């Protein structure tokens, strides 16, 4: 699996090879509890209130025709790989927000919403991350409450541009198409539980 680099800007050595597939997460596709229901694109996003004290956010699970998932490494923490995500503006519908965030962070326009997790998933910020973001945002959030969407990528890899659409500061330095196992393994620890649940929710689309 090749890594696509933003070579015009970053000249650091490539990161270590991605982790090999493993059976570390056998419950990803066969949870012991009842299957998580997934809303289809013909339904509108639920706008119920997220838990108090959490920032409203959308998550993007972008898959290509080979059913691999887009992930990118953060510029500020190169070892941390994640799926695109971003805050929901005041009064903005999550479905609008997820398309906007995808375009802002990856430059991708050739994608369509296929499914969504019909409830909020939350994670708490570690104390040091919370303090950093408090200074950056001017608001003291406990963590993020996320609405996750599955989007199918219908374009070519050349469309992906980590400078985004030019409206926001670049966040990523490397990107790759990954398996669900790699997505979870390479995520920062405090996001792993949410990533596991997202992979379980969208499992029918990833096989």
Automatic annotation (TrEMBL):
Signal peptide segment: none
InterPro entries hit by this protein: Nudix_hydrolase, NUDIX_hydrolase-like_dom_sf, NUDIX_hydrolase_CS, NUDIX_hydrolase_dom, RppH
Entry's Gene Ontology BP terms: nucleoside phosphate metabolic process; ribose phosphate metabolic process
GO function terms (MF aspect): bis(5'-adenosyl)-pentaphosphatase activity; guanosine-3',5'-bis(diphosphate) 3'-diphosphatase activity; metal ion binding
GO CC, alphabetical: chloroplast
Keyword Manganese: yes
CDD domains: NUDIX_Ap4A_hydrolase_plant_like
Residue span(s) of domain Nudix hydrolase: 53-200
Cofactor: Mn(2+)
Pfam families cross-referenced by the UniProt entry: NUDIX
UniProt KW keywords: Hydrolase, Magnesium, Manganese, Metal-binding
The keyword Membrane belongs to this UniProt entry's keyword annotation: no
NCBIfam families given in the database record: PRK00714.1-3 (NF001936), PRK00714.1-5 (NF001938)
Family named by the database record: Belongs to the Nudix hydrolase family.
Protein's name in the database: Nudix hydrolase domain-containing protein
The organism of origin for this protein: Carya illinoinensis (Pecan)
Taxonomic classification: Eukaryota, Viridiplantae, Streptophyta, Embryophyta, Tracheophyta
């Amino acid at each position: 699996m090749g890594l696509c680099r933003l070579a015009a800007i970053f000249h650091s050595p490539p990161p270590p090879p991605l982790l090999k597939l493993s059976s570390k997460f056998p419950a990803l596709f066969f949870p012991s509890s009842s299957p998580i229901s997934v809303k289809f694109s013909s339904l509108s996003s639920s706008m119920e209130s997220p838990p108090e004290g959490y920032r409203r956010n959308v998550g993007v699970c972008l898959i290509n025709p080979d059913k691999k998932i887009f992930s990118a490494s953060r510029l500020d923490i190169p070892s941390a790989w994640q799926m695109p995500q971003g805050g929901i503006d005041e009064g903005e519908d999550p479905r609008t927000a997820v398309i906007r965030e995808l375009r802002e962070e990856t430059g991708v326009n050739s994608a369509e919403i296929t499914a969504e997790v019909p409830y909020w998933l939350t994670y708490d910020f570690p104390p040091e991350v919370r303090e950093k973001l408090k200074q950056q945002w001017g608001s003291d959030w406990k963590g993020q409450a996320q609405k996750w969407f599955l989007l199918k990528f219908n374009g070519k890899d050349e469309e992906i541009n980590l400078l985004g659409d030019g409206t926001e500061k670049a966040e990523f330095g490397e990107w790759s198409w990954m398996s669900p196992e790699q997505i979870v393994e390479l995520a920062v620890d405090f996001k792993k539980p949410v990533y596991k649940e997202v992979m379980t929710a969208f499992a029918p689309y990833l096989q």
